[in-house]
Amino acid sequence: MATMAQAIRLALHYGEENLGVTDVFGEDVGPPLGGVFTCTQGLRTAWNSPLDERGIVGMATGIALAGGRPVAEIQFCDYMFNAIDLLKLAGNASWGSNGAYHLPMVVMTPVGSGIHGSMYHSHSVESVLTHIPGWKVVMPSTPLDAYGLMLAAIEDPNPVFFLPPKALLRTKGEEPIPGEPEDARELHNRIDAPLGDRSQWKPDWPEVGRHLVPIGKAKRMREGRNATVLTYGRLAPVCLEADKQLRAEGFSFDLFDLRSLVPLDWDAIVASVSRTHRLLVVNEDTEVTNFGEHLIRGVIDRAFGELEAAPVLCAGADVPGIGMAWSLEAASVPQLPNVIAAMRALAVAPAREAGGRGFLELPTRLARYR
Amino acid sequence: MDTSLELRIHALMVGARVLEEQLIAMTRSGDGYFWIGGPGEEAFNVPLGLLVHKGEGPAFDYLHLHYRSSATLLAMGAAPIDTLRQMRSVATDPYSGGRNFVNHYARHDWNVVPVTPTIEVQYAQAIGTAHVQRRAGGEGITIVNGGDAGAAEGDFATSLVWSSRPGQELPILIVVANNHYGISTEQRTQWAMSDIASRAEPFGIRHARVDGCDPRASYAAIAEAMAYVRAERRPFCLQADVSRLHGHSSSTGGGLVAERDGLLEYEAALIAEGKLTGEQAAAVWDERRRALKADLETVRGEPFPDPSTIHAHTFYEGEVR
Ligand SMILES: Cc1ncc(C[n+]2csc(CCOP(=O)(O)OP(=O)(O)O)c2C)c(N)n1
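# thiamine diphosphate complex -> structure
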């Protein structure tokens, strides 16, 4: 099975050959490195840019304005903050010109913690990026979804943020990409750049097929009854594991990998909450002005009467950075035990009584789920 | 330069000046809220507009303009009434549908990309259209224009670095319209160098400085720079010293200030050279003023944007253009 990094590379290759991608570029994106996470090795249109995030976003915008189809990379999402106004401008080009222009461009940037990245390689940025109207925002948690979301992002006529979780880029999936060789060794030999001198190396691309994950469709990872759990990115597999362990205790959860944060699959979310009557959101961004708060507000707007316990957000601590020491990182962003504790607490909380004075108060801070 | 072109430039400069004066008057008559524009830049901006290869797509020139570029748009053939529409924020405003400040154009059929109030960002975006044109070959170039104070932003350095990458040089004309102020702050209090275009020197980018109050000198300088960029497919940085005749914007009053007026200088020269009489000149001003008055009456009868349209075009839903 392909890793997520290989899946992204295969998707970009498919995009170059079939979807009109003209430029895959960014810092160290072209040869010899092919990306610090290897996502762009061997691609026909990949090139290295100056170390200038504003320039990278501006270049992508200009390419799209002139009819090209760029996929630009910000090497780590932690370094996209100096490009915020260029990102905003890309998001408002269509609206501000009353539809005269639109920008088919993808900005890919690896997000989140879990790679011992300390203060500046562990950021989560979805709360910031979903706050830039005019952009779609997708985040895969499996290689196949990464492949399908990248193809959908390339095809979309609007700017799309593609946010692979750093910690999952080297993990393998359980479902193959259409056309992927069965033997992982073979895939490795064909598309991973060799160590050492690569100047003569060319990939031997497998014939990969079209597989789109529609932007705006959540994936129901598990069906269950005790609560609806909404998550995405690095914590999707963590929630799956938590659900598995809690099934041994007799609990089960309706577990969603949202995959697309803009637009959101409200239909799926509301339908699930209407069955389970409880909601937990799990992500790793800092908890203040967290995207999960938007999810909770959206459920309250749409299905308040369905809730029988206060909705819960299990998110990262509100700290200025993720500490380098593992003890600090583990205390700052949700880990498996925290997620299990949050899911169990919500499942066993007594239901709000009919006519009662309000919702049961559940702890929302990470520190309380120990 | 033949006399007919000289007179055409004069008429366009007058048209642009009268338009800006009309816009300023509109802030006072309740026909608009905020004015920002380019009175004092006509002598540079009209020749620029006349020299543009106008059209759609990479074979033609891309324009990344700033909010003082009205004369360039008019010289390209834009209808003055459309700028009145944007000033009054009516639904018929073809540049933004009543969404943006006046003089913030966007025209797909002329490669005029959306102008933004965000200073200097156009320099970071212009490299992208130029990149597409480098690959396409042909004669199409990218033109980017902005002020002097904004050149302190990193985006200006971005345009220099990215347009001169060895072997990847871009067909881009980088213009700095130097009016020696950023709102109230004098350039000489913040910049140790006065010749901003010479920042291109260490990158091996050709550069020049021109009197942007002199339309004939500007025409020649722009034509030379463009010819180089079109043929050599390499960047050129051109600084034009211009005036800011009504101050920064309506936020600083919009009144006339004592600076060099390239239009009046030019008109006097044409008269002295016997190419134009005083009466003919006056007739040009009168005709433009009368036409604009009529345009304003038309615009006053047009509807404001329907509030139910606020979400329109947040996302584009059609085929990629
Ligand atoms: C990034 C940014 N910072 C600040 C402002 C506020 N502002 C508007 S115009 C201006 C001065 C611009 O001066 P200059 O670049 O010389 O252009 P000019 O207006 O003189 O033509 C400032 C500070 C802005 N619009 N954008």
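# post-check
The radius of gyration of chain A is 21 Å.
Chain A touches chain B at residues 22-23, 49-50, 52, 54-55, 57-70, 85-86, 89, 93-102, 104, 133-134, 136, 157-158 (CB under 8 Å).
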